[in-house]
TrEMBL record:
Pfam family, one: Peptidase_M28
Name of the molecule in the record: Peptidase M28 domain-containing protein
Domain Peptidase M28: 116-336
InterPro entries documented for this protein: M28_fam, Peptidase_M28
Domain of life per record: Bacteria
Annotated PANTHER family: METALLOPEPTIDASE M28 FAMILY MEMBER (PTHR12147), PEPTIDASE M28 DOMAIN-CONTAINING PROTEIN (PTHR12147:SF26)
Length: 349
């Protein structure tokens, strides 16, 4: 009897143990799913675009579909031309004339030709030009959605909003850059060097350049190019007026009760060529392969210790790598900046 009872007790204990283990596993699994959902608000899938999709989602779905068809949006492949045609169609529908600026760049001894897509407002002072840009090309073999279909799509919406506002006080010029993913961002460098050499007055007329490269990272931060950092820290001298660009974004975020952080702005992207010529620069950024800090997780949610974009420059940077919450916050800020500066650029003085 004693032995039997003991065995029975053991069996019951084992059963209770198994149930507890199952429950624990279930709780852990739920926690893991919750965590995943928490650091990536995936609101888009790769289904076909519908008229009910918000415009940003329609753009993203189009760029994903083009990547599915052509493989990527590399400056060296046919996907770039197809993506540029889509951007040009969107701009034409909004009432813009667009222009292609062709240039060549080198890669391992080979020369390639590609182009920037440029559109600007009619009317508005030619002596006061505000420029906003995002690179249209992507790394090879990737749909390149966060880097940088995100910036491309937000810039399209900003251009539409500026046009809808009517005749501007200042000229607003939008550029979708080619070949940013190659050393020294040859698209923007060509644009700036060409003006410096052939039309310095037009270069002087540029009040500021605002850059948008990666603004929908899955484990995002809302970061503003930090022009306050001392010249000792930055590899580049901070051009006059850059702090004013930064203030415009941070004042806007403050007015929306939106937390933000500063970020180094001297990385290789399309603002560098402008900064070299002393043009005020600014921009927004949601993160790439830097790890999210606990402080950033407290401010923006997501997962501390994990990369802000775990799929940076990989073929997993597809439409499911887009955080729509981040993209919406950033897109609204870009539209705010563009429409405000179209009316009044005194904030930059
Ligand atoms: Zn990029």
């Amino acid at each position: 009897m004693r032995l039997r009872t003991r065995r029975k007790t053991l069996v019951i204990a084992a059963a209770i143990g198994a149930v507890l283990a199952l429950l624990l596993a279930l709780i852990l699994a739920l926690f893991a799913v919750g965590n995943l959902a928490g650091d990536s608000d995936v609101l888009v899938d790769d289904s076909d675009p519908t008229p009910d999709d918000p415009p940003l989602v329609q753009h993203l779905k189009k760029f994903q579909a083009l990547a599915d068809e052509y493989g990527d949006r590399s400056a060296r492949g046919p996907g770039y031309e197809a993506a540029a045609e889509y951007v040009e169609e969107q701009l034409a529908a909004a009432g813009y004339d667009t222009e292609r600026q062709y240039f060549t760049f080198e890669r391992r001894g080979e020369e390639y030709e590609t182009f920037n897509v440029i559109a600007e407002t009619d009317g508005g002072s030619e002596d006061s030009v505000v420029m906003l840009g995002a690179h249209l090309d992507g790394v090879r073999g990737s749909a390149a959605m966060n880097d940088n279909a995100s910036g491309v799509s937000a810039l399209l919406e900003a251009a539409k909003a500026v046009q809808a506002q009517g005749e501007p006080t200042n000229t607003v010029r939008f550029v979708w850059w080619g070949a940013e993913e190659y050393r020294n961002s040859p698209g923007s460098r060509h644009y700036v060097e060409d003006l410096a050499e052939n039309d310095p007055d037009e270069l002087d007329a540029i009040a500021a350049y605002l850059n948008f490269d990666m603004i929908a990272s899955p484990n995002y931060v809302i970061a503003v190019y930090d022009a306050r950092s001392g010249e000792d820290e930055a590899r580049l001298e901070v051009p006059d007026g850059s702090v004013e660009v930064m203030d415009m974004f941070t004042d806007y975020f403050d007015s929306q009760d939106q937390p933000w952080v500063g970020t180094g702005w001297d990385f290789d992207s399309d603002q560098v060529a402008f900064a070299h010529e002393g043009v005020a620069v600014g921009g927004l950024y949601s993160g790439s392969d830097e790890r999210k800090t606990p402080r950033e997780a407290a401010l923006f949610g997501g997962t501390p210790g994990k990369n802000r974009d775990p799929n940076y420059h990989t073929d997993d940077d597809d439409i499911e790598n887009i955080n729509m919450e981040a993209l919406t916050i950033m897109s609204d800020a870009i539209t705010h900046a563009a429409t405000t500066l179209a009316r009044d650029a005194t904030a930059l003085e």
